[in-house]
């Protein structure tokens, strides 16, 4: 079953008419597998609503069917198997990445004009969100200055493997797209691309690291750590 978030999701138009000085971030966990193209269209509609002040900032947690996406910096030579899975060209930053079942995709739509208008800090906060989520499962996630995403050192293999990807776009001051955290995807599916244009390193997941966690367990932690980093509410502004 393919699930598509509606532009208003569970919100009614009446609920989207905010009052007060702070507004909770709308949090949605979508069941099943979500069509990439339809989800992107719904996300862009929500971004417009956020920019217009008619909808709250939003986070959608979901899974996609197997596919590759190409960001604005994608190098075509990094697409090693163009016919294996659908390839979606997208306006987010970054290069090629994989989405599929067992990977928790978080589309994060936050109004940076209410959050300091600092894109670098925002990306660092997304990294911090992932790092804190991993720490709750006793996994040490690390940043690398010369590589995007969050990395895990594998002393048993002598490698550093990528466990989460980050790619964003900003439109009218609202950041969207977000992160992809590997919980238990089919890691072999990454073999059709050079993930994020970075060769010489592998990919891993929580289950690959020996942690038999479930998606609902990860979702619970992600919500808690999100609020630790970004807060539960945002100032509405005028």
Task: Characterize the structure shown.
The strands form 3 sheets. Strands 1, 3, 4, 8, 9, 10, 11, 12 and 13 form a 9-stranded mixed sheet that branches. Strands 6-5-7 form a 3-stranded mixed sheet, with no helix packed on it. Strands 2-14 form a two-stranded antiparallel ribbon. Residues 6-20 have low confidence and may be disordered. It has 3 helices and 14 strands. Helix 2 (119-135) packs across helix 3 (215-230). Helix content is 21%, strand content 33%. The protein is α/β, with parallel strands linked by helices. The longest helix has 17 residues, at 36-52.
Secondary structure layout:
Blueprint: E1 2-3, E2 22-24, E3 26-34, H1 36-52, E4 58-63, E5 67-70, E6 87-89, E7 96-99, E8 103-111, H2 119-135, E9 142-144, E10 147-154, E11 159-171, E12 174-182, E13 202-203, H3 215-230, E14 233-235
Parallel strand pairs: 1-3, 3-4, 5-6, 11-13
Antiparallel strand pairs: 2-14, 4-8, 5-7, 8-12, 9-10, 10-11, 11-12
Helix pairs in contact: 2-3
Features:
single chain, alpha/beta, three-stranded mixed β-sheet, 14 strands, 33% strand, globular
Integer average pLDDT: 88
Structural class: alpha/beta
Strand count: 14
Number of helices: 3
Characterize the biggest β-sheet.
9 strands, mixed
Name the poorly predicted regions.
6-20
Estimate what percentage of residues fall within beta strands: 25-35%
In whole angstroms, the N-to-C terminal distance is 41 Å
- Helix-strand pattern: EEEHEEEEEHEEEEEHE
Gyration radius (Cα, Å) is 17 Å
> What is the global morphology?
globular
Indicate the percent of residues in helices. Answer: 10-25%
